[in-house]
Amino acid sequence: MYTQINNLNTEIVSGDDALAIARASDILRQGGLVAFPTETVYGLGADALNSDASAKIYAAKGRPSDNPLIVHIADTKAVYELAESVPEKAVMLMEAFWPGPLTVILNKKNIVPDGTTGGLDTVAIRMPSHPVAMKLIKESGVYIAAPSANTSGRPSPTLAEHVIEDMNGRIDMIIDGGAVGIGIESTIVDLTGEIPTILRPGYITGKMLEEIIGDVSIDRAIIEPDPNLRPKAPGMKYTHYAPKGEVTIVESGQNDKKVIDKINSLIAEKTAQGFKTAVIATKNNAPYYNCDNVLIVGEADKGVTISANLYAILRKCDTIGAEYIYSEALNQNELGGAIMNRLLKAAGHRVIKVH
Ligand code: AMP
Ligand code: MG
Fold it and tell me: What is the CA radius of gyration of the chain?
């Protein structure tokens, strides 16, 4: 663990301000830290090839040093500078999904310092599609190592305000690009083995990957909460995304009424005991909860309406001071796998099934 600094004068600028992007580029070239918007979540950027610079990311986030960083690029040529070998399937995925929310894991070349890869022989690479991210990578001329711009363990930031909450005083600059589009982190695919393997589910689903490259497997450790399985993406083993209150997911196949009744009875019980509660609800069910804090996360069958709001809502639970939080299972949509992966972590895998 690194010592945290908290005395920098963090400049907050607009993504539309060309002069500010020029200053951000200078900061990155000089080894400083700049938070910027991407289409997934806000990233906390530093020069990926400068290990002193990437060490500052770990310090600012309080991130465990064995948790490697994703390197952001703006031109596929960069992949050949960073990676030792680039398999055909990686090229196919890059062509299909870049720029976009897909990260590929490849064997690294020596120019990528251990400080960026957490000591691994592999490197994670992504080309983001957000125009501010693109501009920053191109104008700075550096490959930008960037994890999510939150304090380690908190929900990832989907608004500049979230970055300010966590990083003000710890980094040199925050570029405000408004709300991000997708709201959950990129899909990570490991291409160093025989069969491509999803290490973290995201907006690009397994089905979308299989349409391009055929068979894809999924790291078992991310779908089964078995403490004996070690996730291949080191970051997936840490508690994440969790508000301070206790989150419980209430699930009942397709029967919304049973879920609503169960959540209402849990709320009545906790309220009677003097606790502050919140509900994470889909839009159609929201009117039926008897709770002071019903947080509408999106439409049950439209994944992006949920992924775009989930982290902001988990943060809101802290602002409200909710001590017990009950969430519907948010799995009845095309992003159900990726969304439930985050929600289950926020809930510490606490699930009540009502049938
Ligand atoms: P973040 O950018 O904060 O969402 O975190 C990056 C994620 O990518 C973490 O879960 C890391 O463990 C994962 N990651 C980065 N580099 C590698 C790598 N070389 N091999 C496996 N996972 C990686
Ligand atoms: Mg993160």
Answer: 20
The CA-based dihedral angle spanning residues 102, 76, 122, 69, taken in that order and rounded to the nearest 10 degrees: -60
Q: What is the pLDDT of residue 1?
A: 43
Mean pLDDT of 309-318: 97
Give yes or no for residue 116 having a pLDDT over 60. yes
Can you state the angle between helices 336-346 and 303-320, rounded to 10 degrees?
10
Write down the pLDDT at residue 335.
Answer: 97
What is the pairing mode between strands 43-47 and 144-145?
antiparallel
Nearest to 260 by CA among 286, 233, 298, 295: 286
Structure tokens at 57: 């990311």
Mean pLDDT of the chain: 95
pLDDT attached to residue 45: 98
User: What is residue 307's predicted lDDT score, i.e. its pLDDT?
Assistant: 98
Residue written as token pair 């009875």: 265
Tokens coding 335 = 């992003």
| Ligand 1 atom 13 nearest Cα | 233
CA 308 to chain centre: 11
Q: How far is CA 32 from the centre of its chain?
A: 22
Instruction: Please indicate whether residue 201, judged by its CB atom, sits closer than 6 Å to ligand 1.
Output: no
- If you measure from the C-alpha of residue 118 to the centroid of ligand 1, how many angstroms do you get, rounded to a whole number? 9
Residues 294-320 have a mean pLDDT of 97
Nearest one of 288, 290, 295, 252 to 269, comparing CA atoms: 290
Pocket test for ligand 1, best of 41, 69, 342, 345 (most atoms within 8 A of CB): 69
Q: Is the CB of 67 under 6 A from ligand 1?
A: yes
Assess whether the C-beta atom of 68 lies below 6 angstroms from ligand 1. Answer: yes
Closest residue by Cα to atom 9, ligand 1, is 235
Q: Report the residue among 39, 54, 105, 123 best suited for mutation to probe ligand 1: largest number of ligand atoms under 8 A from its CB.
A: 105
